[in-house]
Amino acid sequence: MKKIIIAIDGYSGCGKSTTAKAVARALGYTYLDSGAMYRAVTLFFLQNHINPNIPKEVSTGLQELDISFHHDSSNGIQQVYLNGVNVEEEIRGMQVSSKVSEISKLGDVRETMVEKQRKLGKKKGIVMDGRDIGTVVFPEAELKVFMKADTDIRAARRQKELLERGKMVGIDEVRENLEERDAIDTKRAVSPLVKASDAIEMDTSFLDFEEQVSRIIELAKERMN
Length: 225
Prior knowledge:
Layout: E1 5-10, H1 16-27, E2 30-33, H2 34-47, H3 55-63, E3 67-72, E4 77-82, E5 85-86, H4 94-97, H5 100-104, H6 107-120, E6 126-130, H7 133-137, E7 143-148, H8 151-164, H9 171-187, E8 200-203, H10 209-224
Parallel strand pairs: 1-6, 1-7, 2-6, 7-8
Antiparallel strand pairs: 3-4, 4-5
């Protein structure tokens, strides 16, 4: 079977990342977490007090950061490293979540990350999730999936995820954060969150995890022949 690129886009809390990871494992593909890359940039900007409204600071900051992925063989989980330091836990917190859409909409940030993502995907055999993967990063992807879900269901999922990481966050705060990110992501001038014309829409509100994964694997295998 030929190797393909699988692009999974959609809103936060739809299960994009967990589904993409499982699909990659099942197919023996590489999983690339574009959201983690933008979260790492956001963490770097917060740590170094970089003002997103000052282009020179943004440009300089982007030259000083290095983002890489490392597979933890002890638990099989892919870890995100920022300038050689494991930041997997830090980038998932609410502090980063509340700022990531603001940082992600910056033209210089998106241009830098898209260039890196394209390099990582040159050999194909990858699954990448995000918000502009099928429209901007890999418009030639053989399979594009656009995931959505009810906001309340997404908020409950995200709160559960945070609780599993030991972070106590109220459901209202989580919902407000998702709604704010939705607004920023869909209305930004650079690479807004939109469904690609050839993407397959998947509403995950009432789909269980196994159903999501098996459906995408089925679609991928149809395109591998």
